[in-house]
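Why run this: before we spend reagent on co-expression, it is cheaper to look at a predicted model of the complex and decide which construct boundaries make sense. The entries below are exactly what would go into the expression plan.
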Amino acid sequence: MKQVVPLEKARDDAIFGSKAVGLGRAIRDGLPVPPGFALAGSIVESVAAGEKRAIKEVAKRVKPLGGPLAVRSSAVDEDGAQASFAGQHLTLLNVPSSDELNAALSEIWWSANSDSAITYRKRVGLFTRPSVGVVVQALLNPDTAGVMFTRNPVTGADERVIEASWGLGEAVVAGIVIPDHYRVDRSGRVLERKPGHKTVAVRSVPEGGTVEEQVPSERVARLCLDDDQLLELNQLADRCEQVYGPSRDVEWALAAGKLYLLQCRAVTRAGL
Amino acid sequence: MRGVPIEALRRVPLFSDLNKRELQEIARLFKERRFSKGETVVQEGSGGAAFFVIEAGEAKVFVGGEERSILGPGDFFGEIALIDEGTRMATITASSDLLCYGVTYWDFRPLVEKNGVIGWKLLQRMAKMLRDTRGVEDVSQAAGNGRESSGSG
Amino acid sequence: MSRTDEASELRFEPPGPGSWELDAVHFPRPVTRYWSEMHPEASLKGVQDFTRFYGMLIDALEYQYVNGFAYRTVRPLAETDVPQRLQRAEEVIQGKLWREQLRDWDETVKPASIKAHKELQSIDPSSLSDEDLVDHLTRCRNRHAEMIYQHMRFTAAAMIPTGDFLAHVGDWTGLPAADLLDLLRGTAPVSAGASTELDHLIASIKQDAAAQKLLESDVDPRSLLDALRRQESETGAAALAYLNLVGYRLLDGFDISGPVALELPDVLLRAIRAAVAGNGAESLIDGDRLADISGQVPDQHRAQFDELLEEARLTYRIRDERGVFSDIWASGIMRRAALAGGQRLAANGRIQDAAHFVDAGFEEMCALLSDADEPSADELARRFEFRASHSAKEAPPTLGPPPPPPPDLSGLPPAAARIMRAIDITLVALFGSSEAQHDVETLRGLAASRGVYEGPARRVSNPAEFDRIIKGDVLVTESTTEAFNILLPLLGAIVTDSGGLLSHSAIVAREYGIPGVVGTREATDRIADGARLRVDGNAGEVTVLE
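The model came back. Tokens follow.
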């Protein structure tokens, strides 16, 4: 059995975990997910155990991605999408290259086997050894990134709600800035454009990791998405709904003129 | 090769009476784990998942917020919560960058069950701890048993 | 028209034969038409289930609604059913049959309910077509009725062992129920808002610097909760699991008229922050209290004391769990579906406000989504306004003939008498209020939970006002239900108008370890919002300090 496969080949979530399989499926359905590889739980464990053969294989297979890398754990959970599996949700942004990958994999393995992870598993009735797969993708260096709801989660209205800021989506997801706020109807017509207060951009750093950069003052309140880009986002929302169903919560990034899909989940929010 | 160097385990009192083959078997089960200075290695009151041996660096042991002892290379901790599935008895913090070798419950238990020598050593250690908490003096303790870890977990 | 005029124009006729008593404890405000249509039958079925199961000598407690106010009557048992019940009572005592129900709850019913609710709430009703939404509303409504039945089915399982314990130990020691209930503290973590999911979320946040930073930022609460959920870390997964568990629970009450947790993200967020800060009072089982009380039990009863205490401690948590995992959740899911219907009708101008849709009866909801003309927007608005502007204080406390004297238990065989007495004590403790006289500045009520606390009063009469609660406030309200325990990390003390020592306010205050004074009758009339209070949960007194 192959323990490292291109993402689009990851089909078995008992081996690669649900994140890898989800992203793989998105790629097969033609969604613009950044390319990458899925690592099976077994090889993650081998790397954490210091097995030279495994370390070499992973480095070799992942090399074509170049660097820097986004490394995410992919939970091999027995309970489906709703489970919250402690320790199996670590993301290591910007591992500089495949040579530094084993430290990242070791960290992910230990996170899934930490005291709190195991305690939680036991409390929810799982007494088996955990297994954690890993997704390795090329780390984007986006100009703009953010989130999008394919339906207004507050009013239930049939429109897209988009929040965007400069740089990596971290700035929006971690609440570091007040992002631009847009509403676009299903036909692509822009209903609202509200500039945010985008003082900080998160960027990746060549040696590894990320850094918060000051945004030049003239860009702080300038809209970071134009109407063409909003149209593209609307089309992406359409495609996500076709593949996954209505009311999706999407994380996206625009890098070198191309729109990428990073995450697509069901919305958990009540309106009114 | 998988696991950790046998030299690292050889000097741990728990494993000191094992032969090379036995040590190799055990070393395969361990994995490296690093902690940065200041990181909490083990939290008092939390459930336990792994047993650790210190290879390099220093860690401090706190019980109820009070510093009790300092651990260094060759010391081990964490076995108690793995054995009785209870909670961690102390908080252990890395006082310098720390390199440990750890083994989780699923490998630790078969290890002990298969290897009676290790089991016996653990029992000796528990007996000592029991006496210590009861405040009874142990004559052999005064005689010195070589380097014993005073960590608890 | 002024409020009192309207109320005095309401006619209150007994809804059936027998004597009826107002239930202001569970229903401090008028209910929606939807609720009044559905609750009586579902509830009756559940009560009849437990009276049969436990060999009780009544047929049921029945609810009916008059002008939206809840009234309750006791339906007597047919003579011919008595022998069977007496026999059953014997079996219940001998076999401790409440344990059977407890096992059923833990192993089958509770997990199945959680699973079903998670599935139902994974559908976003606002994305459904009108036709599909009608189907979805039907499913939610049927589920809700089923869950009300389920809630009532398990009522006696908690009441009987607790009442049994209070009855016997009260006789042996002469100690008041408030003291004895102390021995049950710590056995009902759900009442204190606890859950594996919340513990996990707190633990994750404590180890996650990025999450802590996020939690401290002043991003608006809705976005902040979203952001927490999105973290690609243990915190994100834990937040998602926690929100999936509590997000669609009603924050207070049982009716679809009240908000669910996710509608008040500010409240949810502040509760999470307070829980992470770990300033929630610890509810510990006190070994000294146990020794003290058991020491007062005569030697020949000591063994039975231990046994009774064990049974009470085992079952105590069912009291709140049976609501929280059953209808309080199902009601929230129904509310969400109803609001989705309301949103689209408000958007096209058919009704004035999305929130008014909850005032349609169920058939009416389906009709409105199929373009019916009735009820009108004005009619729904009127009903909504009525509920918001009236409270159970205006309704007559009884309807119909005066209640018969309580039955003489002394003529009954011991098992049957024991069960009836246990239920009786818990009913009194649930619904009772204090008879104590008040002073100018001091209100008196039942000392429900120990401790003394000083802080600002937060007068909350309406669940939508919960977002005014600030950490450290004293909650002053008519009564509360088990749903609102999510807010506990914010509160310093609880004061209520109605309810006895086994009312939810009392249980929740005890479990969470904050002072509580219940059954004051008049707290909401006499305490102004923001007034500085001293709440003395030992003496049962609330003093206005300024």
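Residues 30 and 239 of chain A are 9 Å apart (CA to CA). The two ends of chain A are 50 Å apart (CA to CA). Bring this page to Monday's planning discussion.
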